[in-house]
Amino acid sequence: MLKRPVGIFLAAMLLSAAACSPDRGYTTVEGVMLGTLLRVVADVEGIGAQELYAAVMELDREAKASMSIFDEHSLLSRLNRNETDSIDRHIAVCLHLADSIGALSGGYYDVTVKPLVEAWGFAGREAQRQPNVDSLLQFVGRDKVRIENGRLVKADPRVQLDFNSVAKGYTVDLLAALVERFGARNYLVDIGGEVRCRGVNAHGDPWRIGVETPFDGNLSDGRYLQKRIRMTGGGLATSGNYRRYYLDDRGRKVAHTIDPRTGRSALSRLLSVTVAAPTCAEADALGTMFLAMGADEALEAVGRMPEIAVYFILATENEEEYEEFVSPALQASIMN
């Protein structure tokens, strides 16, 4: 859940202080949430920036206490250690969404992937030199866990959940609901590059969100943008393997997206996946699904879902240029 921002840079962050001046009714809050950068720009009513920030930080504590795999005291960590079987509403919602996306994925999306993610070194522990993938795959599969009467039931106590592919997007949605409760009709909320927006910015224009160029190690936070996307509502998330990866002792790239079917790093010429959806949680999960599929399977899947709004950046054969794919549902929103 505590991930570095991947792939999205808010062009809205370039607005001057005057653009968010009080006479336009926009309040800006910045800080750290879920261990990554936070930005809220919203026309909230009757509440100052300090009070809004305090409410956001309370939500931060609530989300981490529920869904973080990096906080050993979180509910999810205790469920994974079998210290409790009681779930809360956040975990129930995330599991329900995981079922919905998993049904579309053909096995490429599965939140029981934690034993594999941990073995490869992406869940707060060092990677095993040669992970025994076959021995771990027996504990992976959504059919191995279910909810009964508000309790989590596992087919095997070694089954574990990892919500990194959905929890941040879900928290973005919670944050959007929070500013709406404070009366916001126009807003953009961003946690680590995953966003949800509504209405227009302080200039009266659609929100503009930039997608970064996906070269390995790009930590520029917006200096290199491939495209911009106009939005007046919904969620947007980008997944990519160009930041969270390492080279193993043989010099091979190991990226954080793990294919639940094989237990191995999902690498292909599909470098970056941006998804627009009604909620940020959906966009977050779908982005992980497409990235795990790889280029050919992802493009084929999009062909079966004409309503899906996606922007793919793919490597070419010479690896010196990029190929781009924009689904028809997103084409009107893409800007150079």
What does the model show?
Strands 2-3-6-7-10-15-16-17 form an eight-stranded antiparallel sheet. Strands 1-8-9-18 form a four-stranded antiparallel sheet, with no helix packed on it. It has a two-stranded antiparallel ribbon with strand order 4-5. It is of the alpha+beta class. It has a domain at about 65-155: T-fold (Orthogonal Bundle). Helix 3 packs parallel to helix 7 (about 280-295), helix 6 packs antiparallel against helix 7 (about 280-295) and helix 7 packs across helix 8. It has eight helices and 18 strands.
Protein topology:
Elements: E1 8-10, E2 27-33, E3 36-42, H1 49-67, H2 75-80, H3 89-105, H4 114-119, H5 133-137, E4 145-148, E5 151-154, H6 167-181, E6 187-191, E7 194-198, E8 207-212, E9 225-231, E10 233-240, E11 245-247, E12 253-255, E13 258-259, E14 264-265, E15 270-277, H7 280-293, H8 295-303, E16 309-315, E17 322-326, E18 334-335
Outline:
The protein is an alpha+beta fold and 336 residues long.
